[in-house]
């Protein structure tokens, strides 16, 4: 650090003068005593506490200084200082001002020797820099002093405002604040899968001695390793997430932010933070030193950090972080499509995997038909590796494509919801023999509120220019089941899945004029003030039905 000797000596001179004045036993005036007390209290506030971790906030390019004094009369007094940067690299130094025996003897005699002492203080030989460091690693200095000395620590951040923690102790015989790391603090990767990574590390000696107060916490992210728990928490907060007070979680309940997910199972607590920069996971697993991280993304590099945490003090020590790349996802199995054959595909919404179908054209013109049965499905059709169609489908959807003989078509299907979806698929060159019936412009069922009575409901739906069969079904439902019934309905299933008692009627109709291709039906014999779900099935020449969108209507309670 660039030190100004003037500003070093000045606080040292005032601090020593304050300490001397404080120890003088000669009587003083009240104003003099007040000044000396204020001065002593000011410098006392900059004294580092012994045996306690201190958090220090640093402003950019503004050095901050703290002091501590080794007591007189302790032969070979040991001390340790641990500094933990919580964000950017910092610069810090330890300077010592050694007091001579003549200084101590004169200090006890009175004010008349203070000027002589001050002169001796200013001798450059009395001040020396014993340690300096620049970086963002956790660094510990262990020192030994054979005589009384005043020490100054100076900290400087040149990148931006930040904070650090400093721990000073002169008691090296009792237990340490920080958990102890093993001789080999590396994390070993012992298994890699498409979505999993298995890690192991050597036990901390602190676990063997204080098992009930110690636990391991694992941090998983996609950016880089962190050299301290303090640095990890700062980085996660700066990305817009809010964390619990520490990773040393006591498994007590607390409120999570919307972007956080908490998972508690088998005495393990996992916190998943979601942000634009990627997912950050925190897992505390007690004293187990082997862990398999699940539900990772394939072909992705992850960084893993293990912290040994003291649950009583929240102090922690970091193992040497590691990283690993998950395996690439295997190519999905491709199913061959055959002319005219209908297949139904069920898509797993949780895994969000593609389902692939392949077809080699035997005609120049072909037609793909998709009937959505449940959920939401995204369809991607490629011809010889180039995209020819990409969209989310609803209801019944046709794609008429032109190409050459032996063109290869690849169809990829994926659920766009977390729940499972299903879809029926057919490819055929025979356009004159459609598998599904000719559809109207809309598959909605309309009800007439003014025509509702206590025991009847009137509904209407659109038809086509082709004579077709329509069957109406009704089902009594409870109000709290409406959403579930509509969501879980299989739109590909036909009347064969319905109970016989639910059937209302079947009828044929058509109209050459599409403006008049509308039919109505009044369903009677209903209960008053009751919810009913109505379905209409349209049958084409092939006998495969298309289900209209279900309609929920409630009869009048009083008439």
UniProtKB/TrEMBL annotation:
SUPFAM superfamilies documented for this protein: Fibronectin type III
Entry keyword annotation includes Secreted: yes
Residue ranges of domain Fibronectin type-III in the record: 179-316, 437-545
GO biological process: nervous system development
Molecular function in Gene Ontology: heparin binding
GO cellular component: extracellular region
Localization, UniProt: Secreted
Swiss-Prot/TrEMBL keywords: Glycoprotein, Neurogenesis, Repeat, Secreted, Signal
Range of residues in the leader sequence: 1-21
Purpose: Secretory protein that plays a role in various cellular processes. Acts as a chemorepellent acting on gonadotropin-releasing hormone (GnRH) expressing neurons regulating their migration to the hypothalamus. Also promotes neuron migration, growth and survival as well as neurite outgrowth and is involved in the development of the olfactory system. May also act through the regulation of growth factors activity and downstream signaling. Also regulates extracellular matrix assembly and cell adhesiveness.
Record's protein name: Protein NDNF
Organism the protein comes from: Aptenodytes forsteri
